[in-house]
Amino acid sequence: MSRELKLGSHVVNDESPAYVIAEVGHNHQGKMETAKEMFRKAQECGVSAVKLQKRDNRGLFTEAMFNKPYDHENSFGATYGEHREFLEFDKDHYVELQQFAAELGLDFFATAFDQASVDVLASIDLPAYKVASADLRNIPLLTYIAEVGKPMLVSTGGGTLEDVQRAYDAIMPINPQLCIMQCTCGYPAEFSELNLRVVETYREQFSDIVIGYSGHDNGISMPVVSYVLGARVIEKHFTLNRAMKGTDHVFSLEPVGMRKMTRDLERARQSLGDGKKVVYASEEAPVVKMGKKLVAARDLPAGHVVREADIAIKSPGDGIPPAQMDTVLGKATTGAMARDDAFSPDLLGLPGPIPIGSMVRSPWSPGRPGVWGRCGSGVSWRRGHGSWRWTWSGLRPARRCRRCSTVLPRTACCSMQTSSIVRRSSRRERPPRPGSALRLY
To answer: What's the domain count of the chain?
Structure first.
């Protein structure tokens, strides 16, 4: 089953780039201009979305917690409630920031910590909702958000797989637009506790939804690892300066770090490839330079029958490769060779390659239409006690004669996507002389 989630202006699936969320949270320190500057910097870093946190502090905290003294170097108020209220943006602030993010081409949404905050966010039609790890077991809040009908991203820090399954079962019948995100609730999280293989566990357990990673770790490398493991939504806390006042700045990424992370996530996507092993054009010159070919180990006279002791393997690899040594052994040289001279089809009486791109036709049947094809990297023909083989099947090991199992020469190959065509020679149809080229039309 395919996984896909529409988040704002982006479609997220297994083939898509990472959807990167810059978690601004309350790192704006309660200042709109700081928040806007963070949005601008995040956009320059190449993120997909910016995100805040919304709380109805009076309804969220007990009176005792709200009024608890908060004497701390990161405090913005005398009590914890005053501290939280100082950092909170109201609906008008959200509308202004929503418009500003749209001008920057960024998706904008928030984490809702309570039902009252859900109502505020729903009234301005945000494209998605984030649920904090602390509410993984808050089924009433999960279902309340699900009923809004917008995509949900649920962090799972501090929970068990049973907790995650319970949340999944509660949300999916109401709203299948769900992303479950691996997370560890350490601030910052220890690398030994990130447990990124949970991403693979989630992909197996919840095969119909997109999986993500919400990281509280220091650095930029773990999101890349999570992407390789299958996470497609990546969230990292963002700040203008890690030395700023506030509890979350210390494990947040500054602009230079966020920029490098988005760069590396895209490089990871490109680097994964399609899993098919191929030879790239960029590899051809290095392979020749560093590769090996068969050369004469010493001076050899004309007519000398080549033995293993007569062969040395040296660079560059612009001749017969060592893998085809059997095609050289036992052949008589047609001319004298000096030490380090490369063995070649001409010197061994073997057929040579056809120039790349030439239109060729089988040479064994002059009076018939023959087989036409464009050569990809040369064409080879082989003879084996009356049996002729024309090979179109690409790079393959040298074939053996069907009668005596002698290794037959492979001087080149062709990239046509058809199987080998076999024809037998007759008394009237003589093959070309060894070393002669195929006819070109």
So the answer is: 3
